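This entry is passed on directly below:
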Amino acid sequence: MTDPLLAAVRGGVRTIDLAQPLFTGMPSSPNHPGFRMTLIRRHGDMVRPDGGSAANELIITGGHVGTHVDALSHVSHLGCLNGGIDAAEATVNGRFVHHGIDQMEPLIRRGVLLDVAAAHGVECLEPGYAVSAEDLEKAAAHGGAEPGPGDVALIRTGWATRFDEAAAYLGQSDGVPGPDEEAGQWLAERRIAAAGADTTAFEHIPAGKGHSVLPVHRILLVENGIHIIEHMRLEDLSRERVGEFVFVMAPLKIIGGTGSPVRPLAVMSA
């Protein structure tokens, strides 16, 4: 008997790429090392006897650069990780033996777009705008779908439209829109598996504050074991007015790491 999922794929699917491109000079949080890529060997540097040649690159990056997912080891509160694990004791030989990103399972889940910007009738929320639980309710009603247990909830602020302007996108002086503590609790109460957004931090960043405090990270990662995905590209999803979809994402198996670059996809029937 043909598996229903395989039958659905054979029937035709389309995907929307939810990842930002990786390139030297791209915006990245000042808390993390940035992305660098260069060709370490070019065509012609070495030519084989049959005339063949190959090129390859050297990549240097942090685990929290570009579109990436946070492991539960990424944030601690009062010295503890999710589940009350001692953060210091969880680190052995420079890597986490508990809650490392290698321990995160790939996600094939129902995804829900909470398009807060569209629900407000704007292309992009104002710098430093605090996305509230009421905003998420409004966005869920606008998109016709509300996240539930095991789902992946994606918050669109429109901020990705500034991705090509690093200073404006990072918002160190003017702030960045994002969920406040109340919104974080709203998501946690729905027992989702992961939450993502189109900003550098899944947080409300007021003007001039930078990443001084990250309460939503505490609520999701530490208190509820919910993974966070940042630097997402949600514009195509918004333009197509997709409220719910199949969400597919897998982190790299970085042993004991606190995060991983990812290329999440929204999958729908063709």
User: Anything to note?
Assistant: The chain has a mean pLDDT of 95. The helical segments are 4-10, 116-119, 133-143, 166-170, 181-189, 215-224, 235-239.
